[in-house]
Amino acid sequence: MLPRTRFPMATKMPFPQAGFLNRLELPDAPALLAAGAPLSPLLSRLLLASDGTGELTKAAVCLIQLLKARKATLQASFDTELVADELRRYQKFAKPGQPSPHIVQLRQQQAAARQASSQSKQSFIHAAAAFVRDAGIQVPQRVALEVFITNWIDANVPKEFVPAA
Prior knowledge:
Elements: H1 18-25, H2 29-34, H3 41-47, H4 58-91, H5 101-135, H6 145-156
Helix pairs in contact: 1-4, 4-5
């Protein structure tokens, strides 16, 4: 019987903005946001329609997609590191010659994790471009979109989101 990897690919990476993302995905999200939840003025302006209807804007829908893509990117990065560590651990003691079935399996997992990482990064950049366009945010010159939007999310999206009672 083959030895099992210590860390299955199902291990979840903690996502700092998970609470806020969950609130945005609820059907009553506009009411929760308008009810006085602690949001920055910039984020409030981007998320809620200015006509007073309390509807989410197109930028808010793009922000939901952006946060989902960011979460997928973090998870894929975590999975890639996890499999690479496991592969290094087993290859260190491997005998020369044909690799064991377990090492072959780990290499396949590593390839799948790298592919998932590339796909999630592409979807993150695509979602970031849509969000920046719809929100009217200016990206500084000579700053990669991925770096800018990651810093923007860290600075503007609440990490611990609890609506006001």
